[in-house]
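Changelog note: in this version the structure field was regenerated for every chain. One regenerated record is shown below for reference.
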Amino acid sequence: MPDGEARPKTKPRRRRFKWRAWLRALHRDFGYIAVGLTFIYALSGLAVNHIADWDPSFENFEREFTVTQPLPTDDDQAAAAVVLEQAGLDEPPEDIYRVTDDLLEITLETRTLHVTLSDGEVFEEGRTPRPFLRIANWLHLNRGKQAWTLFADGYAVVLLFLATSGMFMIAGKKGLLGRGAILVALGIALPLGYLWWFGSP
C-alpha cells in the first residue's frame, strides 16, 4: 500500500458467546455449594437404607450394677433417688413404677432402670444418640421446621441443575451426542429395570 494512503477499516469481530464455559463455571460453583448438603443426605441415606438392621439415630446400650446401700421398700421415690445417685444420673425420672413388690422400674428420657429392691441389683437399658447421624437423619427426613423445607427444595433444584448441566458441558463424541447419551440412557434404565424385574408398588 503506497505511503500516505489510508488503510481500510476492518470491522471488529464479534466475540462469540461461549455458553459451555459459563455452564461449566455455574456447574462448578453450584457443585461446591451442594457439597455440605450432599454429604448429609448421602450418609443419612446409607444409614436409613439399613434401618432394618440397626437404629441409624441411636445406639442401644445395657449395663448392670449393684446399689451399695439398702433400698427402702415402702417409698418408691426415695428408692429411685438412691439408685439414680449411685448411677450418676441427675436428670429427673419421667416415671417410677412398682412392677411387683420387689421390682421397681425407673424411666428416664433415654433409659430405663429395673431395680430389684431386696438385693439392690439394677439392670439398665437405654439408647444414646449417634453424634452426627441423628442430626443428619433428622434433616434428611425433613423433621425440622418449615424453613428447612425451603433448604431441601433448593437443594433438590440444585441437583436438577447439576444433572441437567452436566449433560451439556462437553461437546462431541464424549458429550450428549456420543458416549454421554449411552450413559444417560443407562442411568434411566437402572430404576426402570429394577421396577420391571422386582415389580412396582
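Spot check on this record: The helical segments are 19-49, 76-87, 133-140, 146-168, 179-198. The radius of gyration is 32 Å.
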